Amino acid sequence: MIPLDDPRLTAMGLLAEVHTGLMAKMAGAFAESKLSDIDFETLIRLGRSPGHRLRMSDLAAQTSLSTSGVTRVVDRLEREGLVRRVACASDRRASYATLTGEGLTRLESVIPKHIEDIDRWFTGLLAPDQLDTLLDALRVIRDVVRPCATAGAEQEVGIS
Fold first, then answer.
1. Which is nearest to 46 in space by CA: 88, 107, 91?
2. What domain of life does the UniProt record list for this protein's source (predicted)?
């Protein structure tokens, strides 16, 4: 008989419940800024990258999107003036998604409320040592299950 009280099942269930609950708590701040969760994820990854830009392939690797999915998101954000594409000077096949000034302003408009929500519903519930332990554990797991999650985070050259 399979042990239904296996702590590995409990860990996975808790992680899923926490993720779903946190995303529901964060949705209001995104909606107030007229962003979906994937819009926010795209903008924050660009905003936290060197030069506020990433190769399209690296952006896809960092997000939960396929390359065609990230193309659709960037197309929409570009129409809204939040992102623009920049050709790569050293590789004609590649392009970069670059955060615009308007995109940075929109991102900055949601960050205070988002940080408040994170503190209220997540990190503020943990003691500093618990948070450090959690961050270390999450990085170990992330680096195994999503090794490309930090793709393009190093400074890129050859952008025109």
1. 107
2. Bacteria
Report the alpha-carbon distance of residue 63 to residue 115 in Å, rounded: 20
Q: pLDDT tens-digit profile of 29-67?
A: 999 999 999 999 999 999 999 999 999 989 998 887 888
**52 touches 30 (CB < 8 A):** no
SS3 category, 147? coil
In what helix (H) or strand (E) does residue 157 lie, and over which residues does it extend? none
The domains of the chain are located at 11-145
Q: Which fold has domain 11-145?
A: Arc Repressor Mutant, subunit A (1.10.10)
Interior CA angle at 17 toward 117 and 6, to 5°? 140
Residue 147 dihedral angles phi and psi, to the nearest 5°: -60, -20
In this structure, are residues 52 and 46 in contact, taking their beta carbons and an 8 Å threshold? Answer: yes
Q: Note the pLDDT of residue 157.
A: 41
